[in-house]
Design brief:
Shape: rod-shaped
Helix content: 55-70%
Radius of gyration: 50 Å
Number of helices: 10
Distance between the termini: 56 Å
Strand order of the largest sheet: 2-1-5-4-3
Number of domains: 3
Order of helices and strands: HHEEEHEEHHHEHEEHEEHHEE
Largest sheet: 5 strands, mixed
Number of strands: 12
Length: 461
């Protein structure tokens, strides 16, 4: 209870209200003391009127007047003459004098607190102005026992009233906070707990309904987060299912390609010049397909394997890619261009770099063929002090808007109908594995250009 928001709010409210009441308590007690002393001066003035009316009164009547006024003696100053009007024996000397003629507020509070703290009985002199201007001033001497007892009684009643007000106010605020804040917050927490138990269930997504601005903003943010998380979990589940399916397909495909490799060994022994020229390309393609199946199986178990860095001539990889793509062109009017220096060697994983360049060239070929128009694809490379730079440029129609928005996002960056959107995502991941970057430099109606940057420094991989 005390650790809850409403419980702590109840305690704080009670404490603050009591502090406010204490700020009222001391001025109230000081005012009560002043009124008490003024009432004693007024009683003493009334008692002195009896003597003014009759100069001779007996001792018993004088004692009774002083007892009713609760003072020891009365001094009245009239016409600049100070006159002892009533008197009786005092038990002890006067301990202090207090002037009530327009005293400062802080002095009254100080004298009141001092009187509350002093428990020893004293005799004090009080000076004040007579009622209805019946003289210049009036002085009385009186004991402090009655004054302190009355102040304590009044103070206790003030404290009790303050406690009642504090508890009542705190209770009202406690109920208000509980119904207006704590219950809506508890509702949001319950939504979060139910959603955490079944995040894939869209029915557990919160529907914002709070009328409090801050809580409504929190509910809106929670709803947005839950929607995105649910979609991400569904996509992750689909990816897991797809990964399992791809692993099974890759396993069977690897076996089939292994058998095809055996047949290509015999094809290489053919004396036909065309077969002898094409057989190495076929062997390389089947070998790459087998390697791809093996790496796909490894990816299904963990992640894309780390690149095995070696130095090799980039022109050989680019030549293999373009040779394979030329076979897929058919009768379309599509040309290829290479601008890779013969002596340019790069440090990378040849199989992974082949996959990246092949993916970019293949995407460009499919885009140009889909338009039915003539086109050109060019691959160029250069190096500087820091990087090897490979550019793949085409004169195709450019990437669609949807593909540009989710270019390297799996299943969302597909540029053609029927595409999975995995190609560019995998290519970017492979280049990142080398410590490099794959970027789209431009994509307009005049064509598209991708750039691969591979670092030369030790930061690679």
């Amino acid at each position: 209870m005390l650790n809850s928001l409403s419980g702590r709010f109840l305690i704080l409210t009670t404490v603050f209200v009591m502090l406010a009441e204490m700020l009222i308590f001391f001025p109230s007690v000081a005012r009560f003391r002043e009124d008490f002393l003024l009432s004693r001066l007024e009683r003493a003035q009334i008692a002195s009127l009896a003597l003014l009316a009759d100069d001779m009164i007996d001792a018993d009547l004088e004692e009774e007047l002083l007892l009713n006024a609760e003072v020891f003696n009365v001094v009245l100053r009239r016409d600049a003459v100070r006159q002892l009007v009533l008197s009786s024996p005092m038990p002890r000397p006067i301990d202090g004098t207090f002037d009530l003629r327009d005293p400062p507020a802080m002095l009254l509070i100080k004298d009141a607190v001092t009187r509350l703290l002093k428990s020893e009985p004293e005799v004090i002199r009080i000076i004040g102005a007579p009622v209805r201007e019946a003289g210049l001033l009036i002085e009385v001497t009186m004991p402090t026992e009655g004054l302190r007892a009355a102040m304590l009684d009044y103070g206790l009643r003030i404290l009790a009233l303050s406690a009642v007000i504090s508890i009542f106010t705190a209770s009202l605020l406690f109920l208000a906070v509980r119904f207006l804040l704590v219950r809506p917050i508890r509702g949001v927490v319950d939504h979060m707990q139910r959603y955490a138990a079944a995040p894939e269930d869209a029915r557990q997504i919160i529907e914002p309904s709070s009328g409090v601005t801050e809580l409504r903003e929190a509910e809106d943010a929670l709803q947005s987060m839950q929607v995105e998380l649910t979609q991400a979990l569904k996509q992750k589940e689909r990816l897991a299912q797809l990964g399992g399916a791809v692993a099974r397909v890759s396993h069977d495909l690897r076996n089939i390609l292994t058998s095809a490799q055996l047949f290509t060994d015999r094809i290489e022994m053919s004396e036909d010049p065309v077969v002898q020229r094409m057989a190495p390309k076929l062997v390389n393609s089947i070998t790459r397909a087998v390697n791809l199946c093996e790496t796909t199986l490894a990816f299904g178990k963990a992640e894309e394997p780390a690149p095995r860095l070696t130095r090799f001539a980039l022109s050989e990889i680019v030549n293999d890619v373009i040779a394979s793509e030329r076979l897929a062109v058919g009768e379309h009017d599509l040309s290829f261009a290479e601008d890779v220096p013969i002596g340019l060697s790069v440090r990378a994983d040849p199989e992974q770099l082949y996959r990246v360049i092949s993916n970019l060239v293949r995407n460009a070929r499919q885009a140009i063929i889909a338009t039915g128009k003539a086109g050109e694809i060019s691959v160029c490379a250069q190096e500087n002090d820091d990087d090897w730079v490979i550019c793949v440029h085409d004169t195709g129609p450019g990437l669609p808007k949807k593909a540009l928005e989710h270019l390297f996002t799996p299943f969302q960056g597909g540029a053609r109908k029927g595409g999975t959107g995995l190609g560019l995502a995998i290519a970017a991941e492979l280049i990142r594995g080398h410590g490099g970057v794959l970027e789209l430099m431009r994509s307009t109606e005049a064509g598209t250009t991708f750039e691969i940057r591979l670092p030369k420094g030790d930061v690679a991989v």
